[in-house]
Amino acid sequence: MRVIFGMLISLLLTHSSVGIHILRLLTEYGLTTTYGIRTEQLPRFNEYDFIIVGAGPGGSPVANRLSENKNWRILLLEAGGPEGILQQIPMLPTINTKYDWQYKYEPRKKACLGLRDRRCLCPKGKSLGGTSTINGMVYSRGHKLDFDIWAEQGNYGWSYDEVLPYFKKSERANLREPVDKSYHGKNGYVHVQNTPWRSPMTDLFLEAGKELGYDIVDYNGRQQIGFSDNQLTMVNGTRCSASKAYLRIRRSNLDIVTEATVSRVLIDDNNHAYGVEFIKNNKTYRVNAGKEVILSAGTINTPQLLMLSGIGPKDHLDELGIKVVKDARVGYNLCDHVAFIGLTFLVNQSFTFLQQAISTPGAALQYAINGTGPFSTPFPGGLAFTRTKFATDARPDLEIVLQAGSFNVDPRKGRARGITEEVYDTVWKPLEGQTTWGIWPSTQLARSKGRVTLRSTNIKDHPIIDANLLDDPNDLEVLVEGVKFAIEISKSKTLQRYGSRLHDIKIPGCETLEFNSDDYWRCAIRQLTTTFNHEMGTAKMGPATDPTAVVDPELRVHGVGGLRVIDASIMPEVPVGHLAATIYMIAEKGADMIKQSWQN
Description:
A hairpin with a 2-residue loop joins strand 8 (232-235) and strand 9. The relative contact order is 0.18. This protein is of the alpha/beta class. The protein is 27% helix and 18% strand. Keywords: FAD, Flavoprotein, Signal. Its cofactor is FAD. FAD binds at residues 131, 135-138, 262.
């Protein structure tokens, strides 16, 4: 199959306009495969023991683990189709295609001002594997204190010592040093590896970190603060998505139905969930659950489904004429890791950075034969976690992500991030043909909270996503510190050997401010805001005494029987790092909770 990848990439490199067009067509309409995953056109039975909604990092592990019990019948419903072949090439993004819900945040006055329509994009995976099929593949668990805080809030069983075994259970690690081996699993379903190809820029980045006094660390081990190579969910140079990891199993008691959009949970007069209604090929079907319905549709779709089913804020549901089953704070507490994408650095020496590497004639052949080379990595870089002067506890409040290249080498000219033509032409067009690198700083413990609400009672209408980015001034100030830290890295002796310098064309909207002043960076961050699309928190976990909680510590929806939520929406507070690893942990732990409930 990698031979096909190589042929496509060669076409893209040698005949770029034709190649891009064919890649787009193949991504949109063809070359899909289930990778050995058996699917059904429709459910084979009218009733299953468990119905799981969503086949991402939440739903796929739950389907696998529950189907281990041969006496239970499991139905997994996914709104998207099978994964596509092109999703397996780490270097080729597939956002803004049929594999992406293509959500957008509502326009804001404090963020995303330099993007199209003042809206940050919110890509979410729509296929078997969910967002794990379109994300950056970074495997990062969060800080120990994140989970201890969850437990202190009344969420029994969620301290770090209690969740670490589930992180390890999900993982099959094969990592380069440095690695804290006692913190990693070897027998799980999710392959975690370093990229087969590493840009020389990564080595310079790590060397600069050491020069600044930081250790090179395994950020999923004992120590998180420091500089690191990326740990990625991948195997043999290809993406390891949730579905490839967990659903390539042959079990007669597990039915998987794709392109089935669940429109609501069926709830009886006793507030007990007994099934779901879904739409496929413009027809509506119902199927019953003898034991439980499990929502793993993600931070955006899970609250949408809950509210359409009558579980949500009473005033909001009343406005839409939805019968209230349970008045609950569904959709609130939306949080994300907000970042700045406007930092670009240049060098004055010839060097093999990203743009040179991918244009090498042998790169496609190298990937096709060996699964190595620059096409085997989602972005050739590294990352670092650190604490700014605004940190209030031991956790890092800032992440910086190395980009071995900037938007001047992006064939899409930043459109995948919503950058306007005006901004691109002003900032990056003058750099076309030049060697660049970048850093994206991201605030980790964001205080700004948003909300998801319904646009209508039609499941086909995207919900309203008001992320409220940078509403809390602390988030902005952390990012300003992140910019300063990135510039400090650029000024290291390591990078000065290559004449590294900050690109100083002012970002449109900030022309009147002194370049490199704090006020300039505050303005620039508000113009070129993005997020790492780590949305979480919209069905918050908490004890019954917490009026803002939607699910209890065993992930059961408060006040509604037979209904659980197992995905990122249950996170009560945003953790440090990237979310996929934590969602896998939640799914593994949630599956065990379900087993214990019914086997007892």
